[in-house]
Design goal:
CATH topology: Rossmann fold
Low-confidence stretches: 1-12, 14-29
Number of domains: 1
CATH superfamily: Vaccinia Virus protein VP39
Strand order of the largest sheet: 6-5-4-7-8-13-10
Number of strands: 13
Distance between the termini: 30 Å
Mean pLDDT: 85
Number of helices: 9
Oligomer: single chain
Helix content: 10-25%
Radius of gyration: 18 Å
């Protein structure tokens, strides 16, 4: 426990947040998806109808904004749905659990810490959407790191690693303004119903000159255009936003950030999780359970140029 963190800090790591707390399709209650959640333009059109891979009979419509190129899923998002999606099973796949230093999540965490430090980042770090806390554990060797995740199940497991994790809604968490040097959102911003509120809160929590780092599914990528409706990253409600470079810049600039880096970095994916994603993309539901429980979990490097790593500085 660091005494200097007591004022409006969550170093106590108690599970004291109640979750996202609202039922909505996309921010501002735009149930039909006619308003772009990034640029707020109305020049939008529906491009896909999707069924959630996580819950049967849960459907979403994907829309594209002609002004900024942002794509987003409109459909049901409620605390009950999120609790069902982010339950114990979500964090128990081969991609989410670490079986050792050779597991994909451990390798990814180590590579991400190296990337952050290579870019000169240091100090107080908050990992948003920390899951079981493997990245926080790895980052703690360099940063004064802590994390928060929506899933109580994940954070309860993560605390066994001896790290500081809190469960609850990032937007409701009572952190001290201007305290952090670095905020990380690994595969997280796309799941937020209100991306503007998320970036605004990030700006409040960062010191001047602090950095926010995101990995984002890119709806304007070649991989997405080629795969069409079978793109593996169409996974509402886990991914609700599918960015373009224009929408990323517009969102961050509006809240006082300047983009420092935009890189397409390789990511390690377990072999059975990769096959599971392919089975979902082609609607082969009968293969999902066997693949999810399969023991072949070799960490395979994947880079399709459809996940963008963005580093932005608060100015």
């Amino acid at each position: 426990m660091h005494l200097r963190l007591i004022f409006k800090s969550t170093r106590s790591c108690a599970s004291r947040f109640d979750g996202r707390g609202q039922s909505m399709s996309i921010e501002r209650g735009d149930a039909e998806g006619k308003i772009c959640p990034v640029c707020r333009g109305t020049a939008t059109s529906k491009i896909h109808e999707l069924q959630s891979p996580y819950i049967d009979n849960l459907f979403y419509s994907v829309h594209r904004c002609s002004d900024c190129g942002h794509r987003y899923a409109a459909g049901p998002v409620s605390p009950e749905i999120l609790d069902q999606v982010y339950g114990a099973v979500f964090h128990s796949t081969s991609q989410q659990r670490a079986a050792g230093p050779g597991s994909s999540i451990s390798i990814n965490a180590k590579q991400r810490v190296r990337w952050l430090t290579a870019n000169g980042l240091q100090g107080e770090l908050l990992d948003v959407g920390a899951g079981r806390g493997y990245f926080v554990k790895m980052a703690s060797s360099v940063f004064d790191a802590q994390g928060i995740d929506y899933s109580k199940n994940a954070t309860e497991y993560g605390r066994e690693l001896g790290i500081c994790l809190s469960s609850g809604d990032f937007l409701e968490a009572d952190y001290a303004p201007g305290f952090f040097d670095v905020l990380t959102f690994w595969d997280v911003l796309a799941s937020m119903t209100n991306v503007h509120a998320t970036i605004q809160k990030s700006a409040q929590l960062l010191r001047e000159g602090g950095h926010a780092v995101f990995t984002l599914p890119m709806g304007d990528s070649l991989a997405c255009r080629i795969a069409g409706q079978r793109w593996p990253l169409w996974i509402p409600p886990v991914n609700l936003h599918y960015f373009s470079k224009n929408s990323v810049k517009a969102l961050l600039n509006e809240h006082g950030f300047e983009i420092v880096r935009m890189d397409y970095l390789a990511k390690r994916v377990s072999a059975n999780f990769l096959l599971l994603k392919l089975a979902r993309s082609f609607g082969l539901k009968r293969l999902e359970a066997p693949l999810a429980g399969a023991s072949f979990s070799w960490a395979i490097p994947v880079n399709l140029g459809d996940i963008l790593t963005v580093m932005a500085r608060k100015v």
